[in-house]
Automatic annotation (TrEMBL):
Its cofactor is Mg(2+); Mn(2+). Keywords: Hydrolase, Magnesium, Manganese, Metal-binding. Belongs to the DNA repair enzymes AP/ExoA family. Probably binds two magnesium or manganese ions per subunit. The active site is at 108, 149 (proton donor/acceptor), 250 (proton acceptor). This is Exodeoxyribonuclease-3. Pfam families: Exo_endo_phos. Mg(2+) binds at residues 7, 34, 149, 151, 249-250.
DNA sequence: ATGGTCGCCCCGCGA
């Protein structure tokens, strides 16, 4: 089976591109981030017509996440339990596979703007809360996949300019330590299980011809639990949609599970 | 010479 993640930067604008991508890439499930719309405006009918069940957690103007799945979704959780948050950043659900239940956690991690700002402090607190919740979530659901826009470039090779951007947002020691903490829970970065092209990125700034110059970051990730790791057969970033007219600034990432 | 990001929803903010 295949599971994907894609920050689409407004579902209203990007719906036709999401539907076209799903038609060309009929993944079993996908986590979407930055819907930028309220639940009342979520296009359930369009996704149902495309063959997907959907659960969403929307918000006006900012944030918003959803999971689409070929098979029904159950035990839906919205945001981190016990962590008061006005921003809609997390949705988790269980889907049933022939191999057993699979827990899919889809997150739009906090951006954090810049070290030293209030937004950065909020990012670190959010990352702590996520880590603590995921520890219990993993104990309850051994077959777990964590997907999303992590807003962290885990290593220097995940940035087009690790020297010039050292200690700036997405690159700080604190953010990278939090990424390592997630791995420490028993999660594996599926992308790095395989040989990948150099300078593989999942996000490119709209400004200054970022994509054309491949000035990007790898900040969209798929992490798999220890139980799932042996079944991972591939993981790739699909740059194609970034070449579309009116693209999202992020590309989808896809993992294949045997 | 001008404009050189996008999406939100109305204007400057967040990414």
């Amino acid at each position: 089976m295949q599971i994907a993640t894609w920050n689409i930067n407004s579902l209203s604008v990007r719906l036709p591109q999401v539907l076209a991508w799903l038609e060309a890439n009929p993944v079993d499930a996908i986590g979407l981030q930055e819907l930028k719309l309220v639940d009342e405006k979520f296009p359930h009918d369009a996704f149902e017509a495309a063959g997907y069940h959907a659960v969403c957690f929307g918000q006006k103007t900012y944030n918003g996440v959803a999971i689409l799945s070929r098979t029904p979704l159950r035990d839906v959780v919205r945001n981190i339990p016990g962590h008061g948050d006005e921003q809609a950043r997390v949705i988790a659900a269980t889907l049933d596979t022939p191999e057993g239940p699979l827990r899919l956690v889809n997150c739009y991690f906090v951006n954090g703007q810049a070290p030293g700002t209030e937004k950065f402090s909020y990012k670190l607190l959010w990352l702590e809360a996520l880590r603590d919740w995921l520890r219990t979530e993993l104990a309850a659901h051994p077959r777990l996949v964590l997907v999303g826009d992590f807003n962290v470039a885990p290593e220097d090779r995940d940035s087009f300019d690790p020297v010039g951007l050292k200690d700036t947002i997405h690159h700080t020691v604190e953010e990278r330590q939090h990424f390592q903490d997630l791995l420490g829970l028993g999660l594996t970065d599926a992308f790095r299980l395989f040989d990948q092209p150099e300078k593989s990125y999942s996000w490119w700034d709209y400004r200054m011809l970022g994509f054309q110059k491949n000035r990007g970051l790898r900040i969209d990730h798929i992490l798999v639990s220890t139980a799932l790791r042996p079944s991972v057969t591939a993981c790739r970033i699909d740059r194609a949609p970034r070449k579309n007219p009116q693209p999202s600034d992020h590309a989808p990432v896809v993992v294949s599970l045997g």
